[in-house]
Amino acid sequence: MSGKGKTRKGKKLRIGSVELPIAPMIDVVFLLLFYFMVSATIQKQEADISFSLPGRIAQDTPLEMPDEQIVRILGNGQALVNDYAYDSPDRPRYHQLEAMLNRFREASESNQVEARITIAPEDDARHEMVIKVMDACSHAGIESVTFAFSQ
Known about the structure:
Helices cover about 30% and strands about 15% of the residues. The protein has helices at about 25-40, 95-110, 125-140; strands at about 70-75, 80, 85, 115-120, 145. The longest helix is centred in the first third of the chain and has 17 residues, at about 25-40.
């Protein structure tokens, strides 16, 4: 090696125009990505932790509890139970109210008492809204429905 830029066999190296092949580098990156994805441990998030909630237990003797819920219907069609509004009045069906009434019926059955609903519409409430509350009671399986009126 006598001259600058010469190799052993006498061929010149071009230092200024080095070409770097990109395809093998992309392959290596994907292999590394694949390796880290496979070797990583999957951690359970809090929502994925499984636990069991206590189930329903039937009572031997009836439990004295309030067995009646009062569903108020406002003039704008809003259904209230214990001053909590369920569903939007412009919906064709009261699904949230129906789900709450279903849970109420199940709790009443577990305590061996009859589930009773009293519908208390305001004077300017439309009959359509009363019918929607009655439908929710029917879908929830509650048969004892009474009406209250203001004097």
